[in-house]
């Protein structure tokens, strides 16, 4: 699919570092995917107390976990230019994240607690219904031609940001393994390291490791990225280092972080949040102002760092030009309540 320049335009994000936002998640099993923690003292954050090791100092919030000067910064794709989206300040994007393996139950300053998470070396196994199953290490992934794209990112909790991701279309990796015709879905599995990811142990009621999935046509869409970098540098740990998925027309929890396995399957797989709270999270999970969450509206969003100003939510997060034809049944007028069972 070709890319064009007709992308959503948004107001600039306020540069204030946004740290103290209202908790959307107050009950077990509610929320969106992913946040990161670790530390050397017991702290309390929301309702959680952690005995921590490897706590990261504030000055290290933007320190990449490794260097790849031959890859970063990648060349910007002009179809996804900063002229089209006002980039969120790097510090703002790096100091509020969701990554439940580190901080279960809410988003927050994940960067403080990722010190013990080891992201190099790293391997991603690709298997299932394909002719050439492969395992890719970081050097293999960095051999793919990288580019930078500024995407609008929308969390189900109604916050948003505009960030420059570096990576390459997922379809290029899938083409390497030659999917079989029976493969209808692509399943992703994140790292499961309780000794490095304290949220896993603290939230043992969740079904770890984190797992997500896309339909094959979604995975092969040119917008869907294997992301290895952000802001012209390797991915920070709180952003899902060293490799994650970015699917910009879906809510953030559909963008699994720190992935270690990709599996091509025939039947629709279970996903983490549909398994955890099936009445609240559907498989498709497209950004859509017409489909409210059972507990809040999705009609508006706010930019990290500027919560006072609300902007209308765009269907498919503004990327309908590229993906609307994939969803002929997507609601285009407001629903009174979220569909149940979920789509």
Description:
- By secondary structure, this protein is of the alpha+beta class.
- The protein has one domain: Oxidoreductase, molybdopterin-binding domain (Sulfite Oxidase, Chain A, domain 2), CATH 3.90.420.
- It contains seven helices and 14 strands.
- Strands 5, 6, 9, 10, 11, 13 and 14 form a seven-stranded mixed beta sheet that branches.
- The relative contact order is 0.19.
Task: Fill in the keyword field for this structure.
single chain; 343 residues; alpha+beta; Sulfite Oxidase, Chain A, domain 2; 5-stranded mixed sheet; globular; disordered N terminus
Order of helices and strands: EEHEEHEEHEHEHEEEEHEEH
Number of strands: 14
The global form is globular
* Overall number of structural domains: 1
What's the oligomerization state?
single chain
User: Helix amount, in percent?
Assistant: 10-25%
Give the end-to-end Cα distance, rounded to a whole number of Å. Answer: 25 Å
Sheet with the most strands, sense and barrel status:
7 strands, mixed
Radius of gyration of CA atoms, rounded to a whole number: 19 Å
Q: Strand pairing plus helix content: what structural class? A: alpha+beta
Q: What count of helical segments does DSSP give? A: 7
Mean pLDDT rating: 85
Per CATH, the architecture is Alpha-Beta Complex
Low-confidence runs (pLDDT<50, min 5 residues)? 1-53
Say what the CATH topology is.
Answer: Sulfite Oxidase, Chain A, domain 2
